[in-house]
Sequence to fold (261 residues):
Amino acid sequence: MANVTYDFDDETVIVTGGSSGIGRAIAVAFGRAGATVINADLRAGHHGDEEMVPTHEVVDAEGGRATFVETDVSDREAIESVVEAAREFGGVDVMVNNAGAHVYGSVLDVTDEEYDLMESVNVGGVLFGCQAAASDMLDRGVEGSIVNTASIRTDTALADQVLYNLTKGAVKMITRTAAVELADRGIRVNGISPGRTVTPLAEGSRKAEEWSEGDDLAKPIPIGRPATPDEIAPGALFLASDAASYVTGELLTIDGAWSVY
Fold:
């Protein structure tokens, strides 16, 4: 099969939650495509694995340009600060609002603390990430692209994940509303909706071959396995690229056909 390449030379990309999992794969992929990458995360190294090489160092080692900015996306001012930091590299051209939290629990058991965490990270992090990036692009008079990480849980519910389900549903509507409002200003807003993806933070840190076809998804994945982060990342690059110049307000589902039957 032919390889697909993208050219993001002279562009600056912010990836929130870029230290691990899907965010790390997206950040590295943008670096390989020529972008200057800013990893905006709570810590530079992988959460829970101090031996893993930080994302920005991986990009640098491969000949790219990258840096790390400590960022708590639950703090609106922190998001604004990382967007401002991008001015050092010419200003943000692509904003990937990827950082997220995941709390398990039934609708009968949700606590105030759990709700506040999930709302501030999964909803506020995306909403104010869109706001800060779009405001900066408009101030600079440039067109740009915003990509938000949603989930198959935007449209399908799973028991004992009410907070995750509802916050990812909110990401869908933030994406669509922002796309409508910003379309005539030259800013496209889209999202990716990954299905089951094996990441270092996934339950038990199991490898792909150790997952059953359905696992906790309640039905099999037609493609026969979960995704790897490297299989999710190209979706973000496509949506941010000129190849998607007429695409806005869309959520690209990447789930091995799980949601179509």
About this structure: The chain has six helices and seven strands.
